Every structure is written in structure tokens, then in C-alpha cells.
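Subject: complex prediction, re-run

Hi both,

The earlier run crashed halfway through, so I resubmitted it with identical inputs.
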Amino acid sequence: MMNNSKLPRKFYLQNTIEASKAVLGKVLVHRTNEGIISGRIIETEAYLQGDPACHANRGMTPRNEVMFGQPGHAYVYFTYGFHYCFNLVTQPEGIAEAILIRALQPLEGIKLMKRNRNKENPTDLCSGPGKLTQALAIGKPLNKADLLGDQLYLIDDGTDVGEIIAKPRIGIKEAVHEPWRFYPVEYINWVSRK
DNA sequence: ACATCGATCTACT
DNA sequence: GTAGATCGATGTA
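This time it finished cleanly. Structure:
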């Protein structure tokens, strides 16, 4: 196994719940004009076909269109008036499933993150879905970005995150008991909620 | 056209 | 613990 390899398209074709766990520990990298900003993925949520909490559950709209397309693309949407959320599109074309990235452990570009967030405490930089998009400068222009391109991509650096906890998802009103939120025990101090 | 709501976060109590 | 911010997508007319 080679280290520091970009996740292949095939990664996004496995079962979305399995992929939500497998992506924990991978590194999300954004190459911006001002420098590289990256963090280790440590909290995810799975959104599935037939899942009432999934944006795509009521059919295709301009907003969720990318979820119905090719796997390994970014679904970025705007919510609550001033936050963006970043998702990984999984499954073949026609099947609209995704993984919401909820928290990162900051790695590179921490200075830029602090500036983008106007915060100093490292655990305040990426501990929430809206926080990490602000820290990494991920906005609407990156909706539909190909995660196998050179601007925004995921790296496997060989890190093993150990035991993973499954809990109900946060901030939804349907399917509230499904345990489709995942984070590793080892990173509990960096996630959005314990 | 217009009203409603949201996969949230912050600041304050 | 909760109010308030703030705007695009969506549903209804």
C-alpha cells in the first residue's frame, strides 16, 4: 500500500455507510491561491437513498443535482442564511447518496484557518460542518468539483483511526434514530458534539 | 410572486 | 439553554 495517494473513484462506489466510516482519518486538501489548507476527517454522516433526511429524497432539484451524478464529486450547499456544508457524493450515477463532512482535525494552513474563522483555539477551527467550510474557504464555487482533480481532493496517508462510534445524526427532523453519524473515539475532543 | 424552512453557529444568559 | 442572524431552494398560488 502506497502512502499519500488520492482516493480513487472506486472508493466512492462502496456502500455509503461503509464509506462514511472508511473516510475517517483521510485528509481533505484544498489548494487555494493563498496556500494549502488541509485537515483530517474525523466526523461524518451518511445520507442515503430512501432516507427522508436526505436532500435528494424528493427528487432532483438544481440544488441537489450533483448528488445524482458521478461519485467522487463535491456537494456544497448553503444553509441557515450563512453556512456552507460540504458532502462527498457516493454511489453510481442515478443513485443520490452522500457523506456530510462534519469535522476535521486541522493539519496544514492553520494560520489561514485562524484568519478565515477569526478564532485562535485549534478545536474551534473545524469542529462543525459550517465551521470547516469557512476554515477551508469552501463555498458555492466548489459545488460539483471533481474530488479527483487538483483543487479539492482527499488523501490516504495511512493513518488508522481505531475504534469508531456510531450515533444518531444531528439537526434533522426525520429518521432521527438512525445511527449514521460516525467519529473515532481517539478524536472525540475535535468533533462537533460528543 | 410570496411564504416557509433549513444536514448551523454565535453570543448571550 | 435559547434567540437571532440571514438567504437560497422549494412549495403553493
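The longest strand of chain A covers residues 35-47.

- K.
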